[in-house]
Amino acid sequence: MSFGFPSVPDVRLNLSPLVEVVCQVRFPLLLRIAGERPVEFQELLRDRFPEMSVEQSVLFKLSPPEPPTPIDAPPTIYRLSTADGQTSVSLASDFFALTTHSYTHWRDFAELLDQVQQAAIDVYHLPYSSRIGLRYINRIAPERLGVSGRANTLGLIRPELTAPLRAEPLMASNEMLTQLVLSDGLERLAIRVGFGADDSGSFILLDYDRFVEGQLPLAGVMERCRQYHDEIYNAFRWSIPEDQLPHFGPRPVE
């Protein structure tokens, strides 16, 4: 499945805008994770993820016209991290996830993902997944690429993705966030495009979220995620006009 994006060869970027990659696998609620510390799970991953923290996510209950109130006993999330804190594994009673802010190549990420998934299966005997998602978040900083000016900044990605910012009277807009969702049966690809500015200057956000929901065998997670990676890469490359690619410092894959 390609969602219509043409396949292109892999090109490494010296000035890659990629800032975060997340793969999350959800599964039916497992009270064992909620009721005991994940000692065995930690031991299986401790060589690669020596740091650990415990977090409480906060859920809110809406009771109009009363203000939102926290729900008692918020879910616990166990987070294992690498020594530099750039890559982490999250475990909760209904999901595990791998997140990195120092992505190098798909094969490196896939190796870690396979290890995390195997640990979850071995320890908790998960029956199946209810959702599998892979997400790539890019933040394009024009100043880092040697690009200046609003028109040149918007020109870094295809005009179809920034059309509202190019039309009168919306050309004065300083912020934009849009979402497109492509679907094929249960398969989804959400593309979020943002434009804005902060203390570091203007930026463009390209966020690709590929996922599927349903009763999904865990045996197929790695192959499915490899396919999702290829589709996201093709979507990203489509988003960048070929004449703008040199700004990102492309180099052949070794």
Structure report:
With 254 residues, this protein is α+β, with helices and mostly antiparallel strands. The protein has 2 domains: 18-127, TATA-Binding Protein (2-Layer Sandwich), CATH 3.30.310; 135-248, TBP-like, CATH 3.30.2030. The chain contains 5 helices and 13 strands. The strands form 3 sheets. A 9-stranded antiparallel β-sheet has the order 3-6-7-8-2-9-12-11-10, covered by helices on one side.
What would you call the shape? globular
Specify the CATH class of the largest domain: Alpha Beta
Q: Domains counted in the coordinates: how many? A: 2
State the distance separating the first and last CA atoms. Answer: 27 Å
**Would you tell me the overall average pLDDT?**
91
- Helicity level: 10-25%
The structure class reads: alpha+beta
Oligomer designation: single chain
Uncertain spans: none
| Residue share in β-strands | 35-45%
| Strand arrangement, major sheet | 3-6-7-8-2-9-12-11-10
CA-based gyration radius? 20 Å
Main beta-sheet annotation: 9 strands, antiparallel
How many helical stretches? Answer: 5
> Might you state the CATH topology name of the largest domain?
TBP-like
